[in-house]
Amino acid sequence: MTNDRLTPPWRKYATACILSGMMLILTVTLPWTVSKPGMLLLNLLAVMIAAFVGGFGPGLLATALSALGAIYFFLPPLYSLHVQSRSDVVYLGIFTTAACAAAWLLDWARGAAADSEPTRRFELLTNGLQNHRSAS
C-alpha cells in the first residue's frame, strides 16, 4: 500500500476487469446451478478484491462489469441486457448498493491504513531510540 502512487491507474482498472471476468467465468462454468443471491455474492467478492487492490474507481468498474455480466448471462431473457422481472431489478439494486458500499469502505480502509503506516513507523523508531537511551 505504500507504493500505491507508483502503480499506474490502468493496471488497477485492468485488475478489476480481470477479476470480474474470472468470477463471471467461474459462475458460468459451475457444474451446479447457483441461485441469484449466491451468484451476486460471488461477484461481490470480485468487487471487494478489486476495491482493496485498486481503490474506489476499480471497485466501481468491477461492480458495473459484474452487474452487466449477471444481466447478460443469468437473468431472463438470456444473452440480452433487458431485465424482465421486478424481482431481478431488486436483486441488482441490492447488489449494486452493497458493492458500491463495500468498494467505498475498502477504499477508506486502504487510505486509513496508508495514513497510519508512516506514523506507526515513526513511533516505532522513536520508541526504539528511547529504549536504547534508557539502556545506555
Q: How many helices? A: 4
End-to-end separation in angstroms reads 36 Å
Tell me the total number of β-strands. 0
Total domains: 1
- Estimate percent helicity: over 70%
Structural class: mainly alpha
Radius of gyration: 20 Å
Query: Could you spell the SSE succession in H and E letters?
Result: HHHH
Average residue-wise pLDDT: 82
Query: What does the largest sheet look like?
Result: none
Show unreliable segments: none
Query: What spatial form do the alpha-carbon principal axes imply?
Result: elongated
Strand content: under 5%
Folded structure, characterized:
The protein has 136 residues and is mostly helical. It has one domain (4-135). Helix content is 80%, strand content 0%. The protein contains 4 helices and no strands. The protein has helices at 9-29, 36-54, 56-74, 86-135.
